[in-house]
Amino acid sequence: MTYSIGQVAEMFDLPISTLRYYDKEGLFPSLERKSGIRKFSEVEIDALRVIECLKGSGLEIKDIKQFMDWCTQGPETYVQRKELFERRLDALEEEMTRLSRMRDMLKYKCWYYDTALADGGEERIQAMLPDNLPPDVQELYDSGFRS
Amino acid sequence: MTYSIGQVAEMFDLPISTLRYYDKEGLFPSLERKSGIRKFSEVEIDALRVIECLKGSGLEIKDIKQFMDWCTQGPETYVQRKELFERRLDALEEEMTRLSRMRDMLKYKCWYYDTALADGGEERIQAMLPDNLPPDVQELYDSGFRS
DNA sequence: GTAAAAGCTAAACCTAACTTTAGGTCAAGT
DNA sequence: ACTTGACCTAAAGTTAGGTTTAGCTTTTAC
């Protein structure tokens, strides 16, 4: 069973142009054609599922291509593939830590403008900075701006 | 007290060209000059601290400019500013949820290649898919690929 | 058998956020 | 006065990840 580029585009809700772009970038190393027309098989469908995941985790296209090439090469590249995912996992956990601090910063800003609106001005808040905010807010402030 | 563009660049560990770019984009609405040369004051230093935070939370330059303009306009824009931060907070929490699923996917992939290496092949794992993985791994798989 | 729909390619275009380049000005020290 | 280093601008270049365009060919439906 094979699928046309249009069917695949619909399955994954991707523009056809994106699929052609991925192909051009070498993301479907074993894609076949019949008189010039691409025939997507289960292999490419699986590849697309992996591509969506890897892209979602922040991997660049060229690194996804590398991974696809390793898959084509067989079991001798298990170590490389595993190390790729380990590096991605480390990078993603760092990113989540960073976002967590940014979230605290944003929560602080929300409190700031809530309070400024209630007060009708920023003077009272400014007088509390940088060390005399309400304890729960102080925590957000320290996490968001000082670490 | 004012600072030269070079001093500010060093303080924030940013290239001079980036500061000029920010200025061109309108991120320092009250930046002054003496015979053409930029004089950065505390106002711009504060602005830069805010810029770094907003950028880190994913805001685009044009939205940061909007925020700076609102700040210049005074208390009548408190509501807009607050809503900007609330929208950012929602977007960031959605992004963290997404990354959390991606992390599970990556953890699954790490387990997959660990196991493939130990087994010397993927056959045993493939036979367990998609519903008969070890329970802890199954959880990662379901979270990473199916939700 | 013909017309529309779907497919193809190469190449140009797009956006964000900078960076680099080219050519000129300003300021500080000797 | 002069040299050197820091500063200036406008405009072009860069990168990633596509998208659009123009001009074709192939397939499908009637």
Overall pLDDT score of chain A: 94
The poorly predicted ranges of chain A are: none
Which strand order spans the largest sheet of chain A, edge to edge or round the barrel?
1-2
Q: Rg of chain A from C-alpha positions? A: 24 Å
- Tally of distinct domains of chain A: 2
Number of helix segments of chain A? 7
Give me some keywords for this one:
homodimer, 147 residues, mainly alpha, Multidrug-efflux Transporter Regulator, Chain: A, Domain 2, 2 domains, two-stranded antiparallel ribbon, 7 helices, 71% helix, 4% strand, elongated, DNA-binding
SSE arrangement:
Two copies of one chain form a homodimer.
Chain A: H1 5-12, H2 16-24, E1 32-34, E2 37-39, H3 42-56, H4 61-73, H5 78-119, H6 123-128, H7 135-145
Antiparallel strand pairs in A: 1-2
Chain A binds a DNA duplex (30 and 30 nucleotides) through helix 2.
Could you explain the architecture of this structure?
- The first copy, chain A, has 147 residues and is mainly alpha-helical.
- The first copy, chain A, folds into two domains: 73 residues, Multidrug-efflux Transporter Regulator, Chain: A, Domain 2; 54 residues.
- Chain A has seven helices and two strands, in the order H-H-E-E-H-H-H-H-H.
- In chain A, strands 1-2 form a two-stranded antiparallel sheet.
- The model of chain A has no long low-confidence stretch (mean pLDDT 94).
- At the A-B interface, helix 3 and helix 5 of A face helix 3 and helix 5 of B.
- Chain A binds a DNA duplex (30 and 30 nucleotides) through helix 2.
